Amino acid sequence: MKDLYILDAGCISSLGDSMDSCWENIGSEVELEKNYDFEVNMPPKLKRSSDRFSKMYMSVLEKLVNNNKETLEKYPAERIGTIFSSEYGPVTTNLLFAREVLEKEPEICSPAKFSNTVANACVGIACIDHGYKGVSTMLQGSNSLSFSEDLIKEDKADLIFSAFADEYSEEVVKALHDAGDEPRNYSENCSIFLVGNENFKDQSICSIKKMVNMNLGSNTKENEATNERRIRKCIERCLSDGKPVDAVLHTSTDDRIGRLETRIMKDMFPEVPVSGKANKLVGDIMGSSINMNLVLGTMCLKKKELNDKLFDGVKASCKRILVTGYDILGNYSCVLLEA
Amino acid sequence: MESNKQRVVITGLGITCAIGNNKEEVLKSLYEGKTGVGKITLFEAEKLTSDMFGEVKADIPYRVRELDKPSRMEILTDRLIDQLLEDSGITAEEIDSLDERAIMSMATSVGSNTHLIEYTSDIAEGKYIPQRFADYPKYMVKPFQDKLRIGGQYFINNSACSAGTTAICTAFSKIRSGECDLAVVVGIDPATEFSTYGFNSMKNMNKGVCTPFDKNRTGINLGEGGAILLLESYEHAKERNANILAEVYGYGIGNDAYHRTSPDPTGEGAYRTMKMALKDAGLEPEDIDYVNAHGTGTEHNDAMELKAMEMLFEGNKEKPVVGSTKDLTGHCLAAAGMVEAAFCVMAINDKKVWGNNHLTEAEDTENAELLNKPYRDKNVRYAMSNSFAFAGHSSSIIIGQCG
What we know:
Helix content of chain B: 25-40%
Number of strands of chain A: 10
Largest sheet of chain A: 10 strands, mixed
Number of domains of chain B: 2
Distance between the termini of chain A: 17 Å
Number of helices of chain A: 13
CATH superfamily of the largest domain in chain A: Thiolase/Chalcone synthase
CATH class of the largest domain in chain B: Alpha Beta
Radius of gyration of chain A: 19 Å
CATH class of the largest domain in chain A: Alpha Beta
Number of domains of chain A: 2
Largest sheet of chain B: 11 strands, mixed
Structural class of chain A: alpha/beta
Order of helices and strands of chain B: EHEEHHEHHHEHEHEEHEHEHEHHEEEEE
Largest interface: A-B, 81 and 82 residues
Helix content of chain A: 25-40%
Oligomer: heterodimer
Shape of chain B: globular
Structural class of chain B: alpha/beta
CATH topology of the largest domain in chain B: Peroxisomal Thiolase, Chain A, domain 1
Strand content of chain B: 15-25%
Number of helices of chain B: 13
CATH superfamily of the largest domain in chain B: Thiolase/Chalcone synthase
CATH architecture of the largest domain in chain B: 3-Layer(aba) Sandwich
Order of helices and strands of chain A: EHHHHEHHHEHEHEEHEHEHHEE
Number of strands of chain B: 16
Strand order of the largest sheet of chain A: 3-2-4-5-1-6-10-9-7-8
Shape of chain A: globular
C-alpha cells in the first residue's frame, strides 16, 4: 500500500487553538475550560446560522487553510475534499430541535436547527466558505481518516481535510455520569488533518505508514477476552513490518477498555515510552480522543522529540509513533506515524 | 489505484419500505407501479402542510417508551438482518470467523434520534432515563455486534440524503483495496416527527403523491424503511459458492459548495460526481442503461439533476432510461440510496427498469428517456444510482451485471 501523508494539522481544545499552543500548554497549569472562547472569521450570513459545533470546525479549518494557502491554491477545488466525523454531532442543536418538535407546533420549528440534525451542516458551511468541491461526507464515529485514506489512494482527491469534532454538552456529560459511566473530565475538541498522497512527501510532517481498525464489540466483562485478543491483533498488524516504535500514545480512559488497553501496552511495550496522559491533560474528548493524540503524535514528529510532559519526563528523539484509540461505535484503531 | 484491486460483488439483499417488507413484495409492487405513499397513521399530521407519507406497512410500534424494548429503528434493523442472512446464505458464525475482515457500513440520518426524542419526552414528563441519551449512538451498532458478530471496522454515514449511496461506496473501497473480504451495508431511517417537522419547516412537502420530473411537480413525500446488502470480494463469494446478484463497479462523491440545503442549480456538482463514478468504473456514459435518479419531486433537485444528465449523456447513441422511484416509496432520507441501489440490483436481475409512474407531463429532455410507466423491459448491463443531499453532498454509484 502507498503511504498517506500528513501535510499539516490543526486543533482547538481546552489547551489552545493551534497545534503549537496545545503543545506548549500541555502539562502546564492551564485550567481545563469546557466552554472556552475561540475566534472564527466567517461571512456574517454563514456565521449567523452556524452553531458552536460548526464554528469549531470553521475556526480550525480557517487557520489550516491560511497556513497552507500556497499549496491549496495549486489544486482545483474539485480535487480538495472534506471528510468530517463526530460521535455526538451538533448535540446542543439537536436537543433544541427535539424540544421544538415536542411542542407539536410544526410552524415553530426552525429550519436552521433542522439542517444541523444531519450533523453535516458544518461540512456544507466549510465547502461554501472555502469553495471546496471535492469528495465530501460526514461520518459518525472517529474514522474519517480511514475513509480519507481510501479516497486518496483511489486518486479521487489530491488533498483532503480529514476532520473530527465533538462539542461539550453539559447534558450529555450528566447523562453519561448518571448512566453509570465512570467519572471523567469531559472536554471538547476539533482536530483537522490535511492529508495527501506521495506527491506531498517532501512537504509533509509525517506519513501514515499503516492504519488498522477492528471493532471490539460490547464493552462488557464477558467480552473482555475478545476485547483483549482484538486489541493485541490490531497492534500486531499495525506493526507487522517488525520495526520498533519510539513511542506509543494511547487514550487510557478510566473504563474497562481503557484499563485493559493500559495493561496490554505495558505488556507489549515494556521498553518504549508509552503515554496515556493526553486524556487527562486535555480532558476526555469522546470521539476526538484518538485524533487529539494523533495531533500530539504529529507534533512530536514535527519537533523530532517527545513532549516530556506527555511522557513522564522522557524527551527522546522520535521517528515512529504508534497512536491508538477507540470510539463509541466500538472501533479500535491503531495508526502508525513515521517522520 | 493499485492493479491488485479486488472485484466487489453483491451476494445478498434485504429490503423493507412503503411498498413491501421483503424482496418479493417490493418486486411485485414495482411491477404494479403501486405507490406506498398514503395518509400518515403513525403520528398526528393535522398541523403539517402534508399528511402524505411512505410508511412501512408492518406491525411495528412508532414509539417505544421502555428502554429495554427495541425501538422502531432496531426492529427494522433486526428484520433486515434476518432477510440478509436468508438471502445471502451466510451465517453469523462465518462472519465471526472473518474477524476484522468483515466490516459494517451504515447510513442513517435520524436513526439515533428516536432515542433523543424519547429522552426529551421523558424529561418533559418528569422522567429521566440517562442511558437513552448517553448511549444513543451505541444502539445502532449493537445488532451488528451481537447478532452478526462483525469484527472489523464500523462506519456510520450521516451525510443526509446521500448517506445510503456513500455507505456502499465506503464498503466498496474497503473490499476493493483488499482491507476486508466482506461488508454488511445497511441504510435505515424510520419515520420520525423529527425529520417530518424538519422538512415541513422547509416548505417542500407534497400534498399528494410526488411526481418527480413532472413539469408540475410540487415537492417531496417523506418515506421510511431501509435496505441491506452483502458486499463481498469476488474471490470470497466464489469460495463460498454464493449467489452473485450484481457487481459494484465504481463510485463518485463530491460537494456542490453552493448552499446548505439547495443544490447547485447548474447541475455541475452532480455532473462531476457522475463523471467520477464512470471514471472509477472504467466506463463511458454510453455504457449506462438505467439511472435510478435521486428525483425527489422538488423543483430544484429535479431541474438540477436533469441538467447534469443532459450534460453527461450528450452524444450517446442510445439514451439511458431514467426513473425515480420516490413516488412509490417516499424519500427514505439516508436510507434512500440503499433502497434505490436495491432497486438497481432488481433491475439488473429482472432485466427491467422502473420509475416515474406518476409522471404526466414530463420535463423536456434530449439525452435521457424519462420512463412514465411502472416498468419496461431492458437488459441493464450497468445501472447508476444517484443521491444528493443537504450540505451539498452528492454521491453516484455504478452497479452492473457480474462481468
